[in-house]
Amino acid sequence: MYPSLADIPIPHGVPAKDATSPGYLTATDLARFHVHFCRKLLWLSNDKRRRAKNRKEFTEVSLWDQARFRKGTRWEDQLRVGLELLHGPPHIISAGELIGLITLDTRKHFYVVDVAFASPSFSRQFASKRSIRTVSFGTFKPDFLEIWKHTDEGNFTQIRWRVIDAKASRKVKISHQVQIGYYWLALNEIFQEWVAEHPNRDVQLIGDDTGVVWIPSTNSRHPTSGQFSVSLLRPLLEDFLFRDVPAILGRELKNVPWQYNSLCSGCEFMDRCRKEVVDEEKLSMIPQLSMKDHRFLLHVLGYMRNMNSGHCAIEPEIEELHRLLHPSKPNELAPIERLMESVPGTYGRVQRLLHLNLDAVKQRKIGSCEIEESPVLRSAIRHTVEILGKRCLVFPRREDVAVYLSVGIDPETDKLFGFSIRAVSQSPGTFEFNRQVVADAREPDITRMFVETLANVIRQLIAIKESKEDENLYVQFFVFDSNDQETITEFLVAQACESNADPESIRLCIGALLDHSSVLLTTVQPELLASALLFKPSKALRIAEVKKYLRVFGGPDVDLSGKKEVLYARLVECLSRTHSSFPHGSIGLQRMLPRLVSIHAAVTEMVAIPEPGFYGLDECVRWLVDGQSTSKENVHGDQWLVAIYKAWKAGDVQRTSLLLQSHGEMLHRVSRGLRDRIQDYCTRKETNMECILPNVARDFHVVYIDMCKDKHLRRLLFMAQYEMISTLKSHLLSRLHNTEPILLSYRSKQPDSSYEYIFNVHSGLAYLDTDPDWVAYKWILVREGSDADLMFDDLAYFDTNGERLWINGEERRDIAFANIMDVEVGEQGVQVRIKLRAAGCTLKGGTFRLKRRLVDFNTKKIVKTLIDIDQTAQTSTQRPLFLRMLDDVNIVGAERPSNAEDDLRAEARLQTFYREVYTLSGATEKPLLFMGSQNKAFKTILGRSITLVWGPPGHGKTHTLALAALRLIELSGRRSPGTPFRILMTSYTKAALANFTSKLQRLIDEVKSIPNMEHGDWRQQLNVGLCDDRMPSPATLPLHSIVAGTVWKLWKWMESNPTIGAAFDVLIIDEGSQMPVADAALAISVLCSGTSNVSKRVIIAGDHLQLAPVLKGTYPKETGPGDPQLYGSILECLMRGDDGEAVVLRGRRVSPDVFGPLTTMLRENFRMVKELCTFTNTIYRGGQFEPQRSSLVPARSLPHTLRGLFQSTNALLTVILRPRSHTPLDMLPFELHLQTEAKVVGWLVEALLENFEGRVFVITPHRAQRSAVNEVLRKRQVNGGDRIRVDTVERMQGDEAEIVIACYGFTTHFAQFESELDFVFHRNRLNVALSRARNMCILIASQAILHPPVSVLATHERCEAFAHVKTFVERSAVVQWGVDMVGDDHGAPLRDVTEELADRMENMGLG
């Protein structure tokens, strides 16, 4: 066993950290900070060491932490086996001693272990950051130092070293990176100091740029190597270590920001902080308040304090928050009412967090009150349990049988050491079950026992259900919190993937308990939506199709005799008998009820408990069951699990079993107590309990997606259902919490229209999306004060737009389907034109709310298509093309089409012909010629049945597809005159379809303009068109036709013409990186319908580093060996290397050997000037892409004030906003930051439109930004027509403009920025935003986005996105733009700003 840090003696001469020390921090402290994000933890850790008399005072750790430490130690020991090791001495080692050991070793590559170092002083680094003080750091001991050594003939030795840490974790965390980063910085400093002291030594020390974390692999004994860039981490870590940490430690403790929350569980200072929260009445008196929400409320207090500058009294935070609800003088508005008028978005968030009762606020009581305005504040101040009065969809109102699950997981081994399963019936004698099992020496592994016990409970419930015949049996499974939900989910999924697990038992457990997307990792997919909902057979089905679906839904023994009408009726009956887990007549709200309910989540949603910071099971029992806090001990949070674990580690099996049994009993008591309190509340309010708890438990069935036998299709079916459920949940939560508060009042009827009306917009302009082209009625208009939106059954209307709306059997006149047609800003404010389907809905004089609803016309088409493919696979001798592509696309794609050799020779002749045509004409543009890599791509298309055309932004993918389509028809027309050759083209967006058809039409016009073309008769039989609802039979189309349409239009055409595929030879999919795999299945099915798929070609173009499909659900990235990537785009799914591995798993290195045999790369960039092209290439590692345009930016004659900005030779410009305000920026509401950015963008747009040719795009990540920019442009009367477009990133993909402004200036609000790092640093979104420009790209940024917190590097994708932003700024001209946030008018003269910019640019030498 190697020595621990505590065992290593401190030799003479090494500064020890003892009682006389000013304190110090360790690398572990730095890592802990990036787990808890608590500044106070750093301060107290340093202070404790300053006061400590000996090492033991600060080395004691909990039993739980000891177990985790042993887990890590065992993992490190396992890793050492088989490595070439160099062991260090048993004392703190110096740099010279280590270098001596390394140089004496004869090996060229090995690992140094068991070495500990004294930290350097870092005096240079602290001075460079101008820190107010220095900080001492303790000794440190990296797990592994990987060494590469090379000694040349002159005895000069080069040593390259890399830091590796072993972590027994499931994934690489930011805390791991921080710890390794500190080791790297300290070692680098130590080595540099040694080199400076020994300048004549023939040794060179090079720190490797890669930090490595070795974590256990899920499917191998070898570790998974998590790597990150040290150079990317270094500047952020140095800011934290040498600027932020000294600033924290230099403050008085009372001035150090902190929060008491659930992350504090297990912290050694937890009890101290909890007492301070209570004594000082801090905001943490409100339990379960996230760090983001805590910071938000503090900023609101600061903002309101600044608005009310006369109020200077210092009072507790919780009381100050309470004062916002009351005016200070009679006849005044309460501060919260002023907030509602000035910044409604901020008010809405406060309202949701405090559950404000606006009616009580408007009473404007002065002085003492009963705190009726907020049950949250009332609970915190009066120390009472308060019912919040909001609906809760995640907890049932009642059930017949409740099953409570308790599990104990050993943190040292991640194995199950004990469990309890307790079933309680509402009706005595229906079903009772109570069993606890604890692992011991006789039965160390109880995993199988848990699965079998749980499966037996499920079997007994199924038997009871079957004995009830047509009666319902409502069953609900409960755990305490989300951690238990995740533990059981991960446990069951892992067991399903184990070869020794009982398949039938695990299948029962997953089918009964899980509705999470992680089941896609298994072969068991439970049904989420009843078949009758998603499969509605048409009466136009042919008899063979009716029989096919009867076999699917009726089973192998179904009666297939009779006429079509009889068979159809039998099919409808089979579908109606398919089990649904929900009660008869259930509405969409009940789809929110999980199969495995978290009691803690339900308590948090419905009740305010006066427990500071956070609470666990004990607190729930004390407050909800016993009625008061009776505990004299500090048993808090998850201490129940710790107590159970302590008993088990002590070997007391009986006590462990009793504690597990008590845990299950307490779950039942809390569940019952919660319902009792809700019932009492409803009785006092004289309302029905359904108003709070609208859901009852599910009618017990265990149903699987078995309509498809193929495992890939089954997973796609589950994904389609999961997407629909996820979208529904998103809309329901938005309606419940009013997260998109759109408030309208009726104004008038639109003239000359029977269905359109004008409304005034009072709030929520940012959430209004116009969609006049596609009338889907994706909104509902609800009268203010009505609960119709909460009771509306989305699933009853998800694919229809009825004139009348029914809820619970009653026709409602306070709700209507709505479609937003237009938004206008005039002298009388903002108005919206809405098209309604509202029979009987009274509008005049009304105020209304606009809410999103579930609209889904396509999931049923996906379900039917997947079933059809599966049935074909079972009945046909040849596997369908779509499934063959999923199985092994490389084999399918390598099949050589007929006439490939002849076409390749003919294509060479055509290239020569068109080159001669353009040479004779002297044309500069040559659209009919394939240029460079385009020519190679087309040859690949000719030689394969499947081709993936890959290219970064601006590389002419759509042009290549259009020219390829035209050339394929020309080759066929020349080779076989009079023989039909037709092409289907599809894409995910209508914009991409329009782009393709317009490019193709220009090419057709070009080829038709060539006079006297030999063998050119094919041109007269050529047609291109869009697929619409009135498409003719394919056989009636011209011989050479190209039909473009969405997959839904093509599918609809196939439904009326089942053999449509016989008329087409090629399928082209553009923007394949945006098309989901299931959607592509429809298009491929259309191509293969009614004919053999042998000679078909499929061409897919896209870029997997641009935006992926828009999915509501979250899906596992892992797949089994050989399994395709089903949960992304069709391009990602089919891009596989020679070994079959998905390219998306190989990072972003760009080369043919990585991309595999089917992918052909486009290397010429036709969109961007050189600087933009070179920058964009940086995100594609290894890509050698060639710009085809010059760097000249066409501009008009510019006034002097603009030359510095817009005539810089750089096509990249970064505008860093520096807002000026008397109030700290984070205390200003987010809306003001958006408006400030929009003001700057408005000025820029006006200048660009006046002085440049071409189009200008403004790309906004947030819809609220889009709304703010449009409002500024309207107020400034900027009317650029088609030359200006303001939209979100998602809507801009595939389009381009001469100048693009990418708006990331909203990040001046640091708290908001820090809370959405995943959104801001989204690699693919940034790639799209910064690659739309042809001539110039302007990034509106902030200091925050350039210097984010270290946590930005927590994920690989965020690391790459941050690196992309850094590269942009490094290559761009940079302008610091000071702008007033407060009191600055949107109509500020342009010349003032442009003069400021010009001066700044000229001072930088760019004017």
From TrEMBL:
- What protein name does the entry list? DNA2/NAM7 helicase-like C-terminal domain-containing protein
User: What terms describe the molecular function in GO for this protein?
Assistant: 5'-3' DNA helicase activity; ATP binding; hydrolase activity
State the source organism's domain of life: Eukaryota
Is Lyase one of the keywords? no
* Alphabetical list of InterPro entries matching this protein: Coronavir_polyprotein_1ab (IPR050534), DNA2/NAM7-like_C (IPR041679), P-loop_NTPase (IPR027417), SF1_C_Upf1 (IPR047187)
Q: Name the UniProt key words of this record, in alphabetical order.
A: ATP-binding, Helicase, Hydrolase, Nucleotide-binding
**Residues of the DNA2/NAM7 helicase-like C-terminal domain:** 1159-1342
